[in-house]
Task: inverse folding
């Protein structure tokens, strides 16, 4: 039996999981680390924390698994996307990493848009300039910390910094690189236009691989620290959502998944680079060689339910209690509608100024009505993402659901009735770690392709649900009103933001 490691470098922790070649978990370990916010809207982390967490968790898994190091043949790394790691000529970190949720780069996004135009940015990188992406972070360092920018000789993403430390190789792969706004997404290579716009050199950027390609091997130092063999292969890996897609078997046309965490994501596989010129959704290269994915994001998904529980429910009220209350209320909540824009919105509005709304409040409404309205409002927001995909010719035949919200049978049925496609869940909860382990298995030659590896390593729960056409018709009536509310409030949101 051969074994593969999946390492998931997240924002709050790094988790390392050892899988056998059938996708079964053998052993796992995780380590948390801090996030620093030196100013309002800033978010940074220390790359050394990622490396230490990676080494510690690998060491613990290898030691506790009872598996011979020669049988651990390959590893893959999944990572939080968009973060900026800058190294000098001696490969020393120049400053803390500016990570994905940092919002300091609004001026730099305007600068990129003015220099290249929104249309050109979308044509090359498949997305407009966004504060979360890496390119605007590089420009911010150039504008605000010129002495650091001048010393920079290597630019890496978080997971690729860990790769460098484990192997000595400067490498990345297409799915994570797509979120840098430096990649020519349709052609899966660095864009010279973007490189020139930032005033950097291509040699500062790592070599780009496909996700299951071998990028190197574990170096001697890592082998001595962790107990791995120097023969252990390292593959490209993937950005977190692309890795999660592989971990759920979303690797072919017609497949998609919805994640309900703090934010919500609707992710669909596509065999061609379909781009929304309005920039409402992201198009990235996916972890399947030669394929892409399209992703919509709603900012306040699980956050909305968490906020309501914290503010309006008694201590000890859990989400099962809340959904049980909501289940007693009819579709449409007796004409109560919630807009889940607590943190602005991405898809389809790209509006940082919009805010949450309860519309249609009546004296008859109870707490249970409000809970169900929150669940329905978040589901409508996710359905907005699905609608954009349909406009682009992407119509998933079924929907996998994951994340904290995906554990609720009540919420899964609601999504099923609104999306009007079957909904089910994957057996494994390891998501990104399993996804990059699948890629590692392909790189090691255990399986000939990502698709074949998923057939062997990814399984599903026997809990598929199917839509009720009468409920779907009711939801669509309310969704029509839901959509009109943003259009009617858009200008008022702007006015409110200026007060």
Result:
């Amino acid at each position: 039996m051969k074994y593969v490691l999946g390492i998931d470098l997240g924002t709050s922790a790094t988790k390392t999981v050892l899988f056998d070649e059938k996708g079964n978990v053998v052993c796992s370990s995780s380590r948390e680390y801090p996030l620093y916010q030196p100013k309002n809207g800033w978010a940074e982390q220390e790359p050394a924390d990622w490396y230490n967490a990676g080494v510690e968790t690998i060491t613990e898994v290898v030691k506790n698994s009872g598996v011979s190091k020669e049988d651990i043949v390959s590893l893959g790394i999944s990572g939080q996307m968009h973060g900026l790691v800058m190294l000098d000529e001696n490969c020393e970190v120049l400053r803390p990493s500016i990570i994905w949720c940092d919002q300091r780069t609004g001026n730099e996004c305007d600068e990129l848009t003015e220099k290249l135009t929104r249309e050109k940015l979308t044509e090359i990188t498949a997305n407009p300039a966004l504060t979360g992406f890496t390119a605007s972070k590089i420009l911010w360092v150039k504008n605000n910390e010129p002495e650091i920018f001048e010393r920079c000789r290597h630019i890496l993403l978080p997971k690729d910094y860990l790769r460098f430390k484990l192997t000595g190789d400067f490498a990345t792969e297409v799915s994570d690189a797509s979120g840098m706004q430096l990649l020519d997404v349709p052609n899966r290579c660095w864009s010279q236009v973007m490189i020139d716009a930032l005033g950097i050199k291509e040699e500062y950027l790592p070599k780009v691989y496909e996700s299951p390609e071998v990028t190197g091997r574990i170096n001697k130092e890592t082998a001595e620290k962790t107990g791995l063999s120097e023969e252990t292969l390292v593959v490209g890996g993937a950005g977190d959502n692309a890795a999660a897609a592989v971990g759920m078997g979303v690797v072919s046309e017609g497949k998609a998944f919805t994640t309900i965490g703090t934010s919500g994501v609707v992710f669909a596989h596509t065999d061609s680079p379909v781009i929304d010129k309005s920039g409402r959704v992201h198009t990235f290269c996916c972890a399947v060689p030669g394929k892409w994915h399209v992703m919509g994001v709603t900012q306040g998904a699980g956050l909305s339910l968490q906020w309501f529980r914290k503010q309006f429910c008694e201590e000890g009220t859990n989400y099962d209690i809340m959904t049980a209350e909501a289940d007693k209320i009819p579709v449409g909540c007796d004409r109560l509608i919630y807009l889940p824009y607590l943190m602005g919105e991405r898809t389809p509005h790209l509006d940082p100024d919009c805010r949450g709304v309860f519309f249609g409040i009546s004296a008859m409404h109870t707490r249970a009505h409000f809970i169900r309205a929150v669940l329905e409002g978040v589901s409508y927001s996710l359905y907005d993402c699905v609608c954009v995909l349909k406009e682009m010719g992407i119509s998933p035949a079924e929907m996998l659901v994951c994340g904290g919200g995906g554990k609720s049978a009540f919420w899964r049925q609601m999504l099923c009735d609104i999306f009007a496609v079957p909904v089910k869940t994957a057996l494994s909860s390891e998501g990104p770690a399993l996804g990059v382990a699948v890629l590692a298995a392909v790189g090691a030659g255990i399986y000939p392709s990502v698709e074949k590896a998923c057939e062997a390593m990814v399984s599903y729960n026997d809990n598929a649900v199917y839509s009720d056409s009468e409920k779907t018709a009711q939801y669509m009536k309310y969704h029509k009103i839901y959509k009109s509310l943003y259009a009617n409030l858009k200008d008022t949101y702007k006015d409110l933001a200026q007060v």
Notes: Residues 16 and 176 are 19 Å apart (CA to CA). The mean pLDDT is 96. The domain at 3-242 is CATH 3.30.420.40 (Nucleotidyltransferase; domain 5). Residues 469-498 form the longest helix (30 residues).
